[in-house]
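Q: Focus on the chain.
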Amino acid sequence: MPKVYLKTYGCQMNERDTEQVAQMFVERGFTISPKADDADVVLMNTCSVRDQAEQKALGNMRHQNKHRKTRPNIVYGFLGCMAQSRGEELVKQVPQLDLVVGTQKYHKVVDHVVELMERKEAARMDSLEIPIIDTEIEEDSQNTIRDHVSKDFQISEFVSIMQGCNMKCTFCIVPYTRGGERGRPIPEIVDECRRLVDKGVREVTLLGQIVNLYGRHEFPRVDDKSPFVQLLEAVHEIDGLERIRFTSPHPIGYKGDLINAFTYLPKLVDHVHFPMQSGSDRILKRMHRPYKAEKFIEICDKMKAARPGIAISTDIIVGFPGETEEDYQMTKDAVDHVLFDQAYIFRYSPRKDTPAAEMEDQLPERVKEERNQDLLAQINAIIIKKNEALVGSTQEILCEGPSRYNSERLAGRTRTNRIVVFEGDAERMAGQIFKVKITETTGHTLYGDPVLQ
């Protein structure tokens, strides 16, 4: 059987898409390989949100060309956001590319690969330089890809509820690579979640580019509840499902009904990833983020009141065009107020065809890096202090199995999304929810002892 190697860059949405593509290959008789060295097909699902992710994918693909010497018929391809945004340009940059497939054509990947393999076999030793580039927009692409269900399940799984984004932030290329907002029907999402639970899944994470704006164009409000809150209520009713997460929401969609949901839906975990991007109103306006820092902070305060102890993580961009020291200090002040439990700090990088890339007052890389490191230090100090305060406490965790970095130990996540490492029997404890007494912390990771009945 031919072997396929799949590498994913970027967000959870990309991870979910890769899982679906992998399953389609398996259904067609392919084997998924954990390494590229012995694969007949090498595919990379790409991200365009940051320049670093694009450069990693390009560098890795160029490096993979070494396998062409021993396996001349190997198929190389890019999928995903970078493929969608750059198309034929990628073939010029990476001449060995055979396949470029955009974000709305994942369901065509296997067909394209099979066609390329047949072409190469027919050509024998002749040169074959006719790549397939498929980045056209396609209707109903969301449901086409989601008809497939993976057979290999983890304790926690991603469930895509929508695709696309209409917000057009000036720094972001996603609306151009993923298209406009389109949501799946609630019954279809609930059915997928129920099937996952029947297979042993205990936790689902609902995914969307702006997840809390789900269904706003397709479905009506009911009892003054948004379609997203209606979905949360429906998923919450699934027997056997223990935890519900969602990512990533936008402040403009964080209304009272969603905040209130945390008061009566206990399966909603005590954690929200809530991108702030900047604490400066002036920069938020330049980013085309239609809220003010004060509003963002107000929402965070209301969430903490609705669910005491809730953890809030965020995304922040430093070094956005025109960001002054005063603007940056406002971001630091907002961080000090909210006291985020985790934060992903990004140096601004210009993305092709986005308005921010054309702004004149671009900042030097040196300034971006200084602010990046400074804000990281501020966030890390907050995280370490919060984790140290948990030593001696007892936390509920969902055991996910062996620890990623030490297979001799187990790992699980608290309801606040903190990782806890502990000793135990994976066969007996994986997938179970139980208490762990926290005994120590390294700053970012907690260690403890299970408290079992």
Q: What stands out?
A: The chain has 15 helices and 19 strands. The chain has a mean pLDDT of 89. Residues 163 and 182 are 6 Å apart (CA to CA). The chain has three domains: 3-134, 141-389, 394-451.
